[in-house]
Amino acid sequence: MKTQKVTIHTLRQMKERGEKIAMLTAYDATFARLLDESGADVLLVGDSLGMVVQGHDTTLPVTLEEIIYHTRAVVRGTTRAHVVGDMPFGSYQTSLEQGVANAARLMKEGGCHSIKLEGGAVHAELVRRLVAAGIPVMGHIGLTPQSFHQLGGFKVQGRETGGREKLIADARALEEAGVYSIVLEAIPADIAREITQTVSVPTIGIGGGAGCDGQVLVCYDMLGMDETFKPRFVRRFAQLGQTIKEAVSSYVSEVRAGTFPSDAESFTGVESRPQHTGALYSTAGTKK
Ligand code: KIV
Fold first, then answer.
1. Annotated catalytic, 185?
2. How confident is the model at residue 288 (pLDDT cuts 50, 70, 90)?
3. How far apart are CA 114 and CA 85, in angstroms?
């Protein structure tokens, strides 16, 4: 049976039915396949890859070419999920023309199903142009990591005087401009709940509390890849950092002891099985 793909319309229907949306970041085909097969509705090729894949301190150095490269890999690993390509810093801030041209490149060369960009009312006109060009847009307000230096760090947003009103106005402006969804990052749960009840498009929280229409986490964070990184809004659903270290230690010990590889993991000069072609794998990746 053909898999039903998640579209921006599916996400809208999920909000209307009160079904929560599960979104995660993904940066390569193997992870994308695992997350997709496990039921994630949306995969975001986030510019967070600058931090968790490339090892930078912020997302600022990530280029459009890098996002396109990773997006292509994620799309190849995905069957059901909706894939969102993240517009990196500097790829849409210069002019409306630049924003539309780069978003079109990301859709065309990356193969994603929609794009995400950071910022509220200030980008409403760009959102309008993108939507008119047939490019679905996910907004992102609250803590917008591309404004790290302006915000003075990774901090909860909306607590200052007028902060609540500004966030609600930003969400409304994005909705009016035509976004199909809005990420709410690191804002008080009551503000996120109010925005969710105010706008008709699904809200996706990260550090926005349980009142959002869905949740997103950086996949490396929720899988516990970095044992030293545990902000309050992250729940570790696995301890893969520890698991990987244990597996690699076993491998190193077995290689050093000469117990890996065994005879069963080695080849002989004559293949006893009839019709064996000598190929190591079938195209589906199963061992011959
Ligand atoms: O880049 C990213 O991973 C993101 C999510 C945290 C929403 O923007």
1. yes
2. very low
3. 6
Residue whose entry in the numeric block shows the structure tokens 């969804």? 181
205 in the Ramachandran plot: left (φ > 0), alpha (ψ -120 to 50) or beta? beta
Tokens for 217, please give them. Answer: 């986490």
Distance CA 195, CA 211 (A): 9
Domains along the chain with CATH numbers: 8-222 (3.20.20.60)
Identify which of 138, 218, 219, 223 to mutate to test ligand 1's pocket (most ligand atoms within 8 A of the CB). Answer: 218
* 3-class DSSP assignment, residue 211: coil
Residue nearest to atom 8 of ligand 1 (CA): 46
For ligand 1, atom 4, the nearest C-alpha belongs to 46
Overall pTM surpassing 0.70 (yes/no): yes
pLDDT digits (tens, 9 = 90+) for 222-274: 999 999 988 999 999 999 999 999 999 999 999 999 999 999 999 988 766 66
- Rounded to whole angstroms, the Cα distance separating 73 from 111 reads 9
User: How many residues does the structure list for the chain?
Assistant: 288
* Tokens at 232, concatenated: 């309050």
Residues 6+ apart with CB under 8 A from 1: none
Cβ burial of 120 (10 Å; 0-12, 13-18, 19+) is buried
